[in-house]
Amino acid sequence: MTSAKDDDRLVGRSVARREDPRLLSGRGRFVDDIELPGMLHAQFVRSTVAHGTITEIDLTRVRQVPGVVAAFTAADLELGDITAQLGRPLSEFVPTAMPVLARDRVRYVGEPVAVVVARDPYLAEDGLEAAKVTYAPLPPITCEEQALAPDAPRVHAEAAGNTLVDVGLFATEGIDEIFDQAPCVVHVDVRTGRQNALPLETRGAVAQWDAREEQLVLHTCTQTPHQVRTVASRCLRLDERAVRVIVPDMGGGFGLKCVVGREEIATAAAALRLGRPVKWIEDRKDALSASFLAREQHYTARAAFDSDGRILGLDADVVCDMGAYSCYPFTAGIEPLMASAEMPGVYKVPAYRVRGRAITTNKAPTAPYRGVSRPSYVMAMERLMERAARELRLDPVEIRRRNVITDFPYTGVNNITYDPGSYLESLDLCERALREAGWYDRRAAATAEGRHIGIGYSCFSERTGYGSAAFAQRKMEVVPGFDLAEVRMDTSGAVTATTGTVSHGQSHETTMAQIVADTLHLDIAKVKLHQGDTDRITYGWGTFASRSIAVGGSAVRLAAAKLGDKLRAIAAAEWGVPPEDTELDRGRVRRRDDPDVALGYERLADTAYLKSHLLPKDIDPGLTATAVFDVHNDGTFSNATHGVVVELHEGTGQVEILAYFCVEDCGVAVNPQVVEGQCRGGIAQGISGALFEQITYDAQGEPSATSFMDYKVPTAHEIPEVVIHHLQTPCAFTATGAKGAGEGGTIGAPAAVLNAVNDALRPTGVELDNTPITPETVHRALTPRTPEQTP
């Protein structure tokens, strides 16, 4: 317990980021900044065909290249495979072993076949050019239609129909009759393009053997260091104690780095084999074409409505193209299972049927990317709402207003219980903000002038704070969820907090310190955060799924509270009063009955460490506390409404975003400025997916994007100023009251932009359901056609 006054509290205030002085002055330390004596450099020989058997790998000439120290194939390194598992029958899930280096078969262009180690990265590149790999090509599978075609070639022999996951999670009895009798039934066919998460810092690793500690030390930019340690120890056949994973500063992850990659393991194996440090840094070409990709999904959905616009039923078929392998530990099920479980979202859906499938193709494998399936299924739901509004001649906001959940807690047809949120309030506030800014009047004036301005909305929730119970529902054999924290005070009264989460840009050094400082009523300058080191904390699940503050922050707060209790107990023993008669106050413990009597933390720490003989027998020496936190229900739900205004330019087909409004509710915002940064960054990525980004493949399985000349991403010119309004519905299930804010911007943007484009197209009668929305697509929609040109 603390006696902090409201105006003293740090949680809820935009405290300046503590990371900035280091990072902005060039004192950050990233993986590529690490230089060690005798360090070698690795690069990977990668498959040049999308599908084929390996008939020969000849590295003879590679080893003769000046500066090349070694070259290894799978047979040389003899590593275990990376295999992600679900506890489901083979009829629902087919596991696929992903070898660290391809052995007999390659399944996508860019798959690592061999590793070349040289004195510098340029010599390693020279070695790659000398490699000779011979393939017997097999027919590649490059799209959903090919994968599911009868008698299609199999990407994996064990995966019939090229299907890795096929699950029908829900099927309300009598749903067909509901659709047969409904006054209004609308359909959508929504596709989202394949994307790259595109962190500023590509993947990389530095591995070395520490002979004194008898330990492999692996520096890598991962969101989940403990999972990398577990997989590395198993692939390398080492005790887990003999592997230490350290994450330095990291330049973005966005989900791409929350799975275990093959190259990190191969780099570690090379370092072990050679007895020298080895560094691997992914170049942008490999990052775009051969790293984990995301998003390519297809939703065929229909919704039934009554004549007043209230939804009666939802029926969906979800197909996710997961590429060549399941990612570890989430498996290929992460996308279709999330979509199937959560698609009803913020709406009261009384009847629901869904089939979720993950298919395998000869493309780079898929990993989670900011929002996972939610940008796609939210787009499908929001398109259904828009289509029903047009069919029933209802205002698009009004039809949402009639269907959003308003009574909490609410248990949906999907057996998920939603905690209190501000679904209706955020929708109303977003519409009011657009009207008060005059955009409805400007749209009407533009229409009269023959210009194409549209307004679009998306209303959604973001399930955050996934605990082990929520992950277990997917039947994952590796079940993330809990997090552990340690908070300790030294003899000077300074505090070090250690957490299992990992920052890759979310300001943990600031927000976690705010939580600790508030809990202990301590100057934030006295708090230091440690993260991203598997030797500092027993186990942690890292940072993904907006879990850091909701779960990791809760563990930190509970541990800090335990430490505060111990400080009070030591002071109470010295005064001979019960601990409940004391309180924490500005770096000291004081008596409630006499506030002038107080002991500073330094004085109490001196007793705890240096004069422990003075402690009562029931108080152990030292000032260290640990805590574990898990969310034991269905998680918690942040929510938001996005409103977008676009103009379509007839001559070029360009989509210009004129205004962007976001009303978000992530519970308690520990640092509102950080939350706004998360919103703006997420919205930028969502806009990019809506209008710009897509990786396509030709008939041979060759990816289209190998540089930024081929893969279009927006600049500051294309991203508008975003107006953000905050609502706060504190969460009852986390110790911080926070729900999580990492992914909401990305989730809502594609649907809002697509709906705005369709609103601008309303005079043409054309409706678009796919992203990205290209200028060519818009230009065709705006170009009048003669009857002869109409297909």
TrEMBL record:
Record's SUPFAM superfamilies?
Answer: CO dehydrogenase molybdoprotein N-domain-like (SSF54665), Molybdenum cofactor-binding domain (SSF56003)
Region annotated Disordered sits at 766-791
InterPro entries, alphabetically?
Answer: Ald_Oxase/Xan_DH_a/b, Ald_Oxase/Xan_DH_a/b_sf, Ald_Oxase/xanthine_DH-like, AldOxase/xan_DH_MoCoBD1, AldOxase/xan_DH_MoCoBD2, AldOxase/xan_DH_Mopterin-bd_sf
Tagged with keyword Oxidoreductase = yes
Q: List residues of the Aldehyde oxidase/xanthine dehydrogenase a/b hammerhead domain.
A: 25-139
Q: Which UniProt keywords apply?
A: Molybdenum, Oxidoreductase
Q: Which organism is it from?
A: Streptomyces asiaticus subsp. ignotus
The protein's name is Xanthine dehydrogenase family protein molybdopterin-binding subunit
Against Pfam families, the record matches this protein to: Ald_Xan_dh_C, MoCoBD_1, MoCoBD_2
Q: Which SMART domains match?
A: Ald_Xan_dh_C (SM01008)
Q: Where do the TM regions start and end?
A: none
